[in-house]
Amino acid sequence: MPQSRDPKYSDQTVLMLAVRDRRDRAAFGKLFDYFAPRLKGVAMRSGLGSGAAEDVAQEVMLTVWRKADKFDPHRAQVSAWIFQIARNRRIDLVRKENRPVPEEIKIADDVEDDAGQILAMEQEAGQLKTALDQLTPDQRNMIEKAYLGELSHKEISDQTGLALGTVKSRIRLGLERLRHELKGMR
Amino acid sequence: MSQIKHHITDPMLVAYAAGSLEHPFALVVAAHVSLCEECRVQLGAHEAVGGALLDGQAVHAVSVSMKDALLAQLDVVPAAEPDQTCERSGAYPGPVMKALKGKPPRWKSVGGGVRQTLLHVDDDGSVRLLYIPAGKAVPDHGHNGIELTLVLQGAFSDEAGRYGVGDLEVADDTLEHTPIAEQGAPCICLAATDAPLRFNRLIPRLLQPLLRI
Ligand SMILES: [Zn+2]
After folding, report:
1. How far apart are CA A36 and CA A55, in angstroms?
2. Which of residues 16-35 of A touch B (CB under 8 A)?
3. Residue A7 has pLDDT above 60, yes or no
4. What is the DSSP letter of B80?
């Protein structure tokens, strides 16, 4: 079991790190089994038929494999990272011109994983899920439509701002740590 | 620390995180996030929400053949993708340099000392760079929709406040404003709108579509 390497991380993180660091196919298969049916579900929400939605899930998961070296558990949970890949793919599909992306914060290759930081990030992701579970069905539906790309920005109301505080603080810490590491290398 | 006081609104950042923001606005958001750690953090948080929602989605079983087909592709080395990013250059953040195709802006006069470089125009709106000499005004214009103005160099003030480097002004059609560039370096802005600008004085509205204003 890959968990024996570091039993503290969530299963998803352990699997993704195995894919990133060791190109572990069995780990990738497990991530596929979890995320592909959900990615298909999201694609079907936007009106795609079953076959087309499967193509989407397949492409997204192939990108997960190919771009695994970009996965940084200090800044995003596995689900948030895969969400971004799926989002980018959706944009690229409807638009031929370049998708505007912010400048990247350069990450040095040899920065070691900070377990405390990663665990704290996971903990807050858990809190976020709990907060989302407390929404009424109507609220939840609105939030899902906003974040899964079914609403224009004009239709997205301020009620989407929930529960961001804790995650924000954690991402900020991640950025600060990165900056600290980079300073030490100059 | 950052001096940025005017940030992206939450609904706009959610739309960007969701991938549903119109292209002209998305370029401005990407440029602001390149300059603003606050909004970078905020964007990461929105993406975390997106991830949590993906995690909680109802599952739709995928076919075994699809998984097999995917696993068979893992050894295929994909053709190298062209580098999607551009380096920041002077006042221009990476995504703006990307929109400029890595070259310096080619300014065109629009009157009153103001110059512009159109970066992109389509049915969703347009996005351009504006060059405003110190002390000069961007011609008074109203709006049919939303206009975003991100300061890249210098500063301007208008009825709504003062905007320095990195600050983002969000104006809608309730605001008739007249931005004036501060003394000092010329003010350079990235401006996006989801509707054609209505310049009140300089150019007859009939001509605007022809001039791509
Ligand atoms: Zn900001």
Report:
1. 10
2. 25, 28-29, 32-33, 35
3. no
4. P
ipTM of the complex: 0.86
Contact between A37 and B60 using a beta-carbon 8 Å cutoff: yes
Instruction: Answer yes or no: pTM beyond 0.90.
Output: no
Residue whose pair of structure tokens reads 């320095």 in the numeric block: B164
| All domains in chain B, ordered by first residue | 103-211 (2.60.120.10)
* Best of A91, A103, A132 to mutate (most B CBs within 10 Å, chain B): A103
Mutation pick from A129, A147, A152 vs chain B, by most beta carbons of B within 10 Å, is A147
Reported confidence tier of residue A109, pLDDT bands at 50, 70, 90:
low
Q: Are the Cβ atoms of B15 and A75 closer than 8 angstroms?
A: no
Closest in A50, A103, A151 to B20, CB measured: A151
A25-45 and B64-72 are packed helices; what angle lies between their axes, rounded to 10 degrees? Answer: 130
What domains are defined for chain A? 8-97 (1.10.1740.10), 112-186 (1.10.10)
Answer yes or no: do A99 and B26 touch at CB < 8 A: yes
B116: closest CA among B133, B129, B101? B129
Average pLDDT of every residue of chain A: 80
B77 in Cβ contact with A65 (< 8 Å): no
